Batch of 2 targets.
Target 1
Amino acid sequence: MKVLSVVGARPQLVKLAPIAAAFAGTAHQHVIVHTGQHYDHNLSDVFFSGLGIPDPDVHLGVGSGSHGVQTGAVLSAMDPVLEREKPDWVLVYGDTNSTLAGAVSAVKLHIPVAHLEAGLRSFNRAMPEEHNRVLTDHAADLLLAPTEEAVRHLRGEGLGERTHLVGDVMVDVCFKVRDDVLAGRGQALELPEGIDPSQPYLVATLHRAENTDDPARLAALVGALADLPVPVALLAHPRLLARAQSQGLKLAQGAVHPGQPLPYSAMVAAVLGSAGVVTDSGGLQKEAYLLGKPCTTLRTETEWVETLADGWNHLVPNPAELDATAWRELATRPAPSFERGEPYGDGRAAQRVVEVLAANVR
Ligand code: UD1
């Protein structure tokens, strides 16, 4: 079997790592196509080197642009690649513009498409990621769902027959890297200047268009982080930096210590050492949950509803409600002593993905 993975943005590289590792031990051929949606060294290259992913076989180099330009550039660049490679499956990941473009380019050429992380829904149609998920699921031939909840969504949309519950590949990579970090094999802890790792601190990220693109909302969010009672390591995504700069907003204020985005193992180390996480990222909410750290999510909803159980993840859409008192209580809460894999999986999801793909080759 020949499988062609299409990736382009940071969260896809994290998911690619366990998939590439699962293929490495088989006779199957795995071709990696990087669209170039993310091109900064610390959003892309460090994930290949840090997670031991083989270099991409093909780089499309599409870069940034409006949604139409970015999606269209991937679409037109994919045709010759698919015609040359003729894979048995095109495997697309998650919910970015690269995901949708990879899926559409394959279906137009009658090449079977599998969607990893199928069935996630925020039901928020203002999010570009929500359209990318829904359209990709309906285009794909095989839907690889991470959770029972995702399977329910797909069945509700009439896609149950194409759906397989495989578990979440992010559990595979998160637990492996956690174990490396705890055994001293990971990257050293790298926190922004001014944060003392021996004292409680929070890890924060902000990059969703709905939080960064409205100047009043972004200023209110950064202001709320600045007022927190513990230092905040704000690992700033390029979109956040660009929007803050164009809006004349200073990120280094009050408790906020801005820093660069971290490689995966440094991020896991930062979260493990922290009192908790404040974020609008999907992946980081789940990593906080898996690593037993309380999370506050700066959004109206989450696709990872399982993290809301027992108050480990709180949705706080209104920056004025980012409650300092709650943080003091959460920061002193003992981490759970049990393995947090369930309900996301057992750390063997990538292996199951390879098995399901192989069993369904046409
Ligand atoms: C994208 C995904 C989002 C995912 C996120 C992870 C879409 C619609 N969104 O959002 O689902 O959670 O990646 O990071 O696909 N930029 C750089 N360097 C880079 C990449 C981007 O400077 O390497 C800047 C550019 O100014 C660009 C902006 O960031 O315009 C946004 O990048 P884009 O790829 O459009 O979306 P993300 O916000 O990264």
Target 2
Amino acid sequence: MDREILEGLSYNEKRLLLAMDKIGGVSTPEELIANGSFALEVEVMGSASWLSTKGLMQMDEEQSVFYVLGDEKVAKDGLAERRAITIINDAGGRMDMSALAEAMPNGEDKIAVGWLKRKGLADIVKEGDSKILALTDLGKEMLSKRMPDEEVIDKLAQGPVAKGTVDEKIIKDLKGRQSMVVEDVKVKRTLKLTDMGREAIASGIELKEEVAQITDNLIQSGKWKEVDFRKYDVQTFAPAFYPAKKHPLSRLGAEVRKIYTDMGFTEFDGEYVEPAFWDLDVLFVPQDHPARELQDTFYLSNPKKFDLSSYEDLVQMVKKIHENGGDTGSTGWGGKWSREMAEQAMLRTHTTVNTITYISKHPEAPAKVFSLSRIFRKESIDATHLPEFTQIEGIVIDENANFDMLISLIKEFYSKMGFDQIRIRPAYFPYTEPSLEFEVFFNGKWMELGGAGIFRPEVVAPFGVKVPVLAWGFGFERLAMLKWNIKDIRDLYISDIDDLKKNPTF
Ligand code: PHE
């Protein structure tokens, strides 16, 4: 016998075991209440179900069907055909059908006539244009007798009747007659001590009031020294409870937003569909850059292209910057810049497109903005790649901004996210100079998380920005994978409701 089970028994569980033992180990809740062992059925059942999860008791349920009167009116008024034979008899044993309809309103005469015929209580005879109801010998006999179905009704009027003790055919008819009779299912519970239960009793159960809950009063009065505390039984079964929670990515997004807004940034967003002009050309991505290729970028067929003429001055400036550097002091990429390529409609490949459209509308310093939004790249799906993912992007436009500030902003963000080991290395992006890439140390591995840099004059000059613009873009899903140690990026989007509920880490 497991000591923990014995020590974990509540006062009422012990009471129930002892009461059951006294009456031979088998009982019902009703009996235990009748003999004064317990006052309430819930007390018995509560303790009994705990004892049965602990294996000390067995609970059996037996369901039995009873019939009860469904409509009390029937018991009072009687069957329609009973009233009809009385009315016909009072009229001399014969009656015009239309006179019966007057005597039994609300269509009850129709029900009555149907049953009069079915039971053979009256015949219908035609006399000229009218139909006459005439009581049969059986109908006359029944004036002073109860019919079989009436006997059943009388019985049910005394109380519920167990299925199997009355004529099922009559019951079926009465159930069909506007539910005069309905079923009532009663559950009979039997409690039985198991061998383990007997063993527990044999090992000696001491019935002492025990304290299950500590109160201030108990502590302050010093009474706690005298009372017995009930031990916890941590092995007892208890139903799992899963409170509502937000999707892990929504929570992580909220966390990212909180960190940036706490640092004084405001959020911005842009469009999913843009011309290549904004996603690439304005950002000084050369037109022969591999990122432009069909296999990397989703170009659209509808709309296929954008008309750029509403900002023709900017288009001309960007053209010059690409071809010879324009007034920026750069030599540009050389060659001929193609307007058609820039007009192509595409799904944005980075949120840096939002950044630059934002700067075009708000070129003034100082500014600190961030975005957390969806981007699209033509990647094949595997454990670390998705064709749609989310970028955390931000910029600082400030006279005093510099490379050190950029590094400390990145470090600060990740440290607030809980990652303190960050490694920075030089990198290349066509739109920033200097540029950096950074990695976070996690689980014994360095993992690449994003890029950053200071926008080149070729990018910001068209908007009249003269001060440094720090810019960065991080992978949001990568962050989630790090945070929850997820090996497969797809797991983040499968949203298996059961896993989401039960997974304690997210
Ligand atoms: N746009 C880059 C990317 O998608 C990230 C980046 C943003 C780099 C801003 C530099 C500056 O990977």
